[in-house]
Amino acid sequence: MSQKKSLYIGGLSSTATPTIIKAAFIPFGEIRDVDVPMDFKTGQNKGFCFLTYVTASDCAEALYNMDGSELLDRTLNVKYSSEDKDYNPNSEAVWKGDKWIKEHGVGGDGAEEEERKIQALKEMNGPAIN
User: Fold this and answer.
1) Quick check: 64 and 1 in contact, CB under 8 A?
2) Which one-letter DSSP state was computed for residue 5?
3) From 42, 67, 99, 101, which residue has the greatest number of CB atoms within 10 Å?
4) Are 68 and 112 within one domain?
5) Looking at residue 115, what is its pLDDT?
6) Which range of residues forms the domain containing residue 37?
């Protein structure tokens, strides 16, 4: 039996939330973490997530039972995640931090900076830029 505790779950509906995903997978054992990458342009998930169980046996049970099953009218593709890193409760996805958001122009001061750049281009090039 594999000692992996993390699953890749693909084929998610764009309306799937961490709460819905956790509810679907909790019958197989205690879940340590659900990481759902988001598309900042649409505000929806990217169609996949990573789910980590406390034990490898629970993870194997979920894989066996959930691969090919349906959630929110979508067929799930469930596999062991390619990397099963040690869980660190203090770690956070890079895209969740304020620094990354500001640097990439998504909300906060980054959006204001982006607007300033657009305004400067308009002033340099005349009204042709909308």
Assistant:
1) no
2) -
3) 101
4) no
5) 73
6) 1-84
104 Cβ contact partners less than 8 Å away, ≥ 6 residues apart: 110
- CA pair distance 127, 104, nearest whole angstrom: 26
| Structure confidence at residue 2 (pLDDT) | 73
> Are 71 and 108 contained in the same domain?
no
In degrees rounded to 5, what are phi and psi of residue 32?
-85, -40
Same domain? 6 vs 45: yes
Q: How many CB atoms lie within 10 A of CB 111?
A: 13
- Best CA proximity match to 51, nearest among 5, 3, 1, 82: 5
Residues 27-85: pLDDT tens digits?
999 999 999 999 888 889 999 999 999 999 999 999 999 999 999 999 999 999 986 55
CA-CA distance, 86 to 98, in Å (whole number)?
25
In 4-102, beta strands by DSSP E = 6-10, 31-35, 38-39, 44-45, 48-53, 70-71, 74-75, 77-80
- Phi and psi of 72, rounded to 5°? 55, 45
On whether both 80 and 115 belong to a single domain, the answer is no
